[in-house]
Amino acid sequence: MRLGIGTTLDHDNPQEWADDLVAMGCTAAVSPFDCTTSPALRRAYLDQAQSHDLRIGEVGAWKNVMSAQISERESNIAYVQEQLALAEDIHARCCVNISGNAGFGDWDQYSAENYLPETYDRIVETTQRIIDAVNPQHTTYAMECMPWMIPDSPEQYLQLIDDVDRPAFSVHLDYTNMMNGIERWRNRDQFIERCFSLLGNRILSVHVKDAKLLASLPTAIVEVQPGEGGIDCDMVVRHIAKLPEDTTVFVEHLPDHDAYARAMSYVNQRLQSL
Fold it and tell me: Under 8 Å CB-to-CB from 196, ≥6 apart: which residues?
């Protein structure tokens, strides 16, 4: 696997970006530029990635293609198509987004509309539309799992793969994001194993994160520094080690450089213990 951090830390130039990642032990990176970046700056980043042996694993799309506002939805779809085209151009592992919030409110939050049958149909049609606009041969479009929108389980992801019916639709696995209830938390080892068992041959990128159950009411499950929660990281890396060698794996949602460095060290130690 190739390990990296799921963010772009502050830097002054492409070489500093690459030097910082390599010093942290990274062999993978998320794209530090998007489709609006100038060709010259894009080339400079790619040259540094190549010379530092950094694989661009993810081009983030992060737009609400389910927006209840039609004009906003169409604009977001166009941007995601451009991001997928960028991923294709640079041969990234995947272009990743979430399905989106079909109701009103923040783009990545829960709405009852997220689970309506017509929303599911629109997710399928929109995903097909995004992929067909680019017809990628060197990358894929992937959907990050979320706790309160489709897909929120490996079984639902499998169904979505079948219904989208496009070879360029792949899996970005974030098992922690799907810890959306006490039953799933209680059976988290079995749940994570099921994710890898059902989705393994379609997984191109993975978020490795830890979480803990807070002693509060109502149920609250929160992300924590890797190694400080209840996720069995040794089990996770054993499953990831069975995936193709160029699978990209990222730690994310940490507060600063030092926290990312500690997370990288922790996951690398787990890898060395295999």
Answer: 173, 203, 239, 240, 242
Query: What angle in degrees, to the nearest 10, is found between the helix axes of 233-240 and 188-199?
Result: 10
What is the pTM (predicted TM-score) of this model? 0.96
- Residue 202 is given by DSSP the state G
pLDDT in tens, 168-213: 999 999 999 999 999 999 999 999 999 999 999 999 999 999 999 9
Cis-peptide into 147, omega within 30 deg:
no
Looking at 52-116, list the stretches that DSSP marks H as alpha helix, in order from N- to C-terminal side. Answer: 70-90
Q: Which two tokens stand for residue 10?
A: 């502050």
Q: In what order do the strands lie in the sheet with 94-97?
A: 2-5, 248-251, 203-207, 169-173, 141-144, 94-97, 55-60, 28-30
Q: Structure tokens of 194?
A: 């099921």
Residue 100, Cβ neighbours under 10 Å: how many? 28
Kind plus residue range of the DSSP H or E element containing 205:
strand 203-207
